[in-house]
Amino acid sequence: MRTVSVREMGGCRGLGRFWGGWRRGPGVHAAPEAAGFGTEAGHQLRRRGSSKRSGPLGHQAFPGLLQLENLSREGLVDVLRAAVVDQKGPLVTLNKPPGLPVTGKPGELTLFSVLPELSQSLGLRDRELQVVQASGKETSGLVLLSSCPQTASRLQKFFIHSRRAQRPTATYCAVTDGVPASPEGHIQVALKLEHTDGVDLVIPVKSPSRKDFQEGVKRTLSHFHVVARGAGCALVQLQPLTVFPSQLQVHMVLQLCPVLGDHTYSACVGTVLGQRFLLPAKSTKPQRQVLDEALLRRLHLTPAQAAQLPLHLHLHCLHLPGMRPREAPMKLLAPLPSYFSRTLQCLGLHQQ
């Protein structure tokens, strides 16, 4: 297998050692019994993420974050060109910074909107790039592009067939606020997308009916493996076997361990007398994640800075087939952003 490592983004050069050859555990972790995320716990409850959003802080505490509002189209093309991991034949691989949407509304600055300029910048002339595989807006990590429609179609079929066979092709790494109860296992739950108060939110569905599936409910499945733990947090490897918006974030919330920097779903985890449990998703509005004082001290952050904490979810590895007959499969790797590596160092999260 040929391994291609992306250039350093201030991350850990040895990250690949974290993810080598782990075995998937047999346990399947379904959603808790209550529908949605959980049930109300009365007036004793202290909601996690309940404080008001702080004013704009900028990114002094998180160097290297992309600030789209300060970028022109030409500037974004320069950023993406510098983020190229590998360019071989029709394939171009990027290490996407967090905060960059892949698609968006007409006129918005997105990865898709600058693909013609990026294609020209990379010397592809009339062969315009198209997106084959990409992480979400707030997620950092690998993006796979192709200038050949036939190659793009072949790879998309490969990803579809791999999911049907439950063979993981993408590996994410995440830092979670909390440690999963099991060191490894599967998370399996039905999810649906609801538009509430102008926001699209992913909601777990208990015991979905045939009608629910006809209306867009989907069964989702992820593997997880705890690589390291410390200071009440964990470094977790995640491998999705289905595709659904915010799947990994919601799956970790269902483990009562929201991803660090998740300012959408972390509010669904509440605590009473130090015990965590789920709040009902439909009645819990997205709020900035609130971290306890001990964790803030370990991270050397103020509450205002923590309110701007970027999502610690990174698409670290993609497995691809060989592009020619008898060619060995490829493994693309991208190191962590600098803020992610800083968090690991502050929390003492190292391979055990």
TrEMBL record:
Which parts of the sequence are annotated with region: Disordered?
A: 38-58
What the entry lists under InterPro entries is as follows:
PsdUridine_synth_cat_dom_sf, PsdUridine_synth_RsuA/RluA, RluA_PseudoU_synthase
Q: Which GO terms describe its molecular function?
A: pseudouridine synthase activity; RNA binding
* Pseudouridine synthase RsuA/RluA-like domain location: 91-252
Pfam families named in the record: PseudoU_synth_2
Q: Which residues form a coiled coil?
A: none
**GO biological process annotations for this chain's record?**
pseudouridine synthesis
What PANTHER family has UniProt attached to this entry? MITOCHONDRIAL MRNA PSEUDOURIDINE SYNTHASE RPUSD3 (PTHR21600:SF49), MITOCHONDRIAL RNA PSEUDOURIDINE SYNTHASE (PTHR21600)
Question: Under what name is this protein listed?
Answer: Mitochondrial mRNA pseudouridine synthase RPUSD3 isoform X1
Q: Per the UniProt entry, what species is this protein from, by scientific name?
A: Zalophus californianus (California sealion)
Recite the lineage of the species. Answer: Eukaryota, Metazoa, Chordata, Craniata, Vertebrata
